[in-house]
Amino acid sequence: MMIIKPVSKIALTLAVMVFAVCSASATTGMLEMLNLTGARQAAMGETAALSDYDAFNLEYNPATIVGMKMGRLGFSYNSFFQDRTTSTLAAIFPAKGLDLGMHMRLSGTGDIEGRRDYPTSEPDYLFSAHNYAVKFFAAAALMPQMNVGLSAGWLMEKIDIDRGSSLAFGLGAVYDFQNGLAAHASAANLGSKFKFIEEENDLPTIYRVGTSFHKNEMMFSADYVNIKSGDGHLHFGGEYLLEKHLYLRGGYQTGYDSRDFSAGVGFVYDYLRIDYAFVPFKSDLGNSHRFTFNILLR
Questions:
Q1: One digit per residue, pLDDT tens: the chain, 298 residues?
Q2: Architecture in CATH of 4-297
Q3: Antiparallel, parallel or unpaired: β 232-241 and 272-280
Q4: If you ran DSSP here, which 8-state letter would residue 3 be given?
Q5: What pairing do the DSSP bridges indicate for beta strands 71-79 and 287-297?
């Protein structure tokens, strides 16, 4: 007989270490959804940098897609410790009166050692753990300076032969003060209970409110982030256009056990935009390397 419950707990513990949200682990499932994928945002302390730069602001606030004159197609690849990887495809389709977006992600870890009835020096078998998510977005201008957006999607977690899934929803708003200053608020991963084997948990709902200021070659952003059942965190980020095509970025996050500083660079040439983020983890958890590619759809 296979011992499933210990395997589940090990996987959840792994997720807790990666995302440093131990206070939420007892009541929250699908912790993978706390790991946002955009490299530009990750380098800037995981702040919702309010601009039309790339497609990955969808994860932070669906209202950010309003007003883009051209569509966006983005791909990201993130690598973490224990050979865990995340691949994401995001797209934005501007339309008259209603802008649309799509976000798909796959995360996984392979070759996890499994044992059946008794502890052994060698594993009885190897298995994998995967998370899947598909979300769709719609946003529009509510008034000249205020945009609103909604999202709806499906999340699934699979560990070995067991799986669980849930619907998830989100909403957001952005207000532009039209002097380089903008403010935003959003909620992501609202939805039904997530059931895995015999356990039912809440989704990892993320509440975010913040501001962003852009002047000439510089941008600064600051967010307050609260994860359901957890403590609040302050996120700060900055970006500087060093040359015509090169951006330098840095960020800082407060209140996490395993991470704080982040850094990155961005390269822009015509319709192609490439971003890289370096996020070091504490407690011997290694480092995270994130790459994103954005293409303007003309």
A1: 333 334 333 333 333 333 333 333 334 455 666 677 889 999 999 998 777 667 888 889 999 888 788 889 999 988 776 677 889 999 999 888 899 999 999 888 877 777 777 777 777 777 778 888 999 999 999 998 999 999 999 988 888 878 888 899 999 999 999 888 999 999 998 987 777 777 777 888 899 999 999 988 899 999 999 987 677 899 999 999 988 899 999 999 998 887 889 999 999 988 899 999 999 887 767 788 889 999 988 7
A2: Beta Barrel (2.40)
A3: unpaired
A4: -
A5: antiparallel
CA distance 264 to 278: 6
What's the full length of the chain, in residues? Answer: 298
Closest CA to 87 of 131, 117, 24, 125: 131
**Where exactly are the structural domains of the chain?**
4-297
CA dihedral 239, 237, 32, 62 (to 10 degrees): -70
Cβ atoms of 161 and 40 within 8 Å: the answer is: no
- Determine the straight-line distance between the first and last CA of the chain, rounded to whole angstroms: 57
> What phi and psi, each to the nearest 5 degrees, are found at residue 40?
-65, -45
- Read off the amino acid at residue 255: G
pTM over 0.85: no
Give, as one character, the DSSP assignment of residue 200. Answer: E
The C-alpha atoms of residue 224 and residue 59 are separated, in whole angstroms, by 15
d(CA 156, CA 167): 9
